[in-house]
Structure formats: structure tokens, C-alpha cells
Amino acid sequence: MNVLGICGSPHPEGNTAYALRHALAVIEAQGLETAYISLAAREITPCDGCFTCRTRECVHEDDMTLIYDAICRCDGLILASPVYMGLVSGQMKVMMDRTVVFRTGGRFELSGKVGAGIACGGFRNGGQELTLQCMHTFFLQQDMYAIADGPRFSHSGAAIVGRAPADEVGLHTVENLALRVTQAVKRLRGLGE
Asked: How many helices (H) and strands (E) does the chain have?
């Protein structure tokens, strides 16, 4: 798989899922393989900071096993989250916290992968930028490349307002982001200019 999309919404068919699936469809049209994981109804135990993962696997046995495997196989990772209280959803944050296993003990297993974010909020200034910055912090702490949506808007990533299918500007940022992720992954794999 080339690009993995992880949807951090508790609503499996909501705006965030729509926006992420739209991005993955654009990427597939460019010739890359994609995969989609929804965190809705997943059992993910919060990280408790025990750092057992410094010397062996995480002590929690839950749905993160599937997510760990998918993240390891991808070249590009798109995180998509609704804006909850100005930041990523709780589901997304717990998943992000649990990936500390990839960087403990100096391993940095995600180093060099491509990362990008999509944020969906109720208002144009509803916290999308902070949500995207949270995702960028995650990518940078994992030593990944953080990709923005690029020109014509060039913000921290794609931002949807209200109902995703009706937000033309937001969907344009999703498409730009998807094309830039595709370009970055192709370069990473030696397939692009």
C-alpha cells in the first residue's frame, strides 16, 4: 500500500470520512494504492506512559495492532479529524499517542514517510488550523515529512467547513493535498520528478 488514510471521527459516514475518502480517490486516480481505516467503534486503550515499548511491544492488546501494521506498510499517511474543542478528536489523539512505540528507544520507524492532515469543522475559523498543527506536530515528532495543501491556498492542510459535499473551497484543498501527497510519495519511491 502507498497511502493510508485514518479517519478519527466517531461517525463512520460523516463529513470527515467523506473528505478523507475523496482524498484517497484522487490519489488512486494518480496510480497509487490506498487503504482506509476508521477509528469509529475501534477499541484503543489510551497510552498510560509505562514505556514498556522501549524494550518490547505495547502492553495493550487491542485494535491498534491492525493500525500499527497498516502504518508500517504505508509510504504516506493522511490523518483526518473533526474539530473537537479546537483540536483533534479524542479517538485521533489516543491513536496518535499509542504510536509512541514507533519512536521509543531511538527507533523512529516512521522516519521519512509522508504525512498530511484534513480537518473538518463547523465554521470557517472553527479550529481547523490548530487541528492541522496538532497533526503536523505528530508527523514531525515521528520524523515524517509534513505536507500542506499548497497553492492556491497553501495552509497547513485541507480544511472542510460544514457539510463536506457542499464545501467547494474545502474540497479543493482536499484535492490539492491529495495531489501533493501523491507527488511526495512518488518522489520518495523514485517514481516522480
From this structure: 5, 6
Whole-number Å distance between alpha carbons of 23 and 92: 18
SS3 93: helix
- Quick one: what percent of the chain has pLDDT higher than 90? 85
Distance of CA 25 to the CA centre of its chain: 15
186: left (phi over 0), alpha (psi -120 to 50) or beta: alpha
Identify the structural domains of the chain with CATH numbers, from first to last: 3-188 (3.40.50.360)
d(CA 90, CA 7) in angstroms, rounded, equals 12
Chain segment 42-64, per-residue pLDDT in tens: 999 999 999 898 888 899 999 99
Length of the chain in terms of residues written: 193
Return the biggest CA–CA distance within the chain: 48
Question: Is residue 84 a contact partner of residue 120, using CB atoms and an 8 Å limit?
Answer: no
pTM to 2 decimals?
0.95
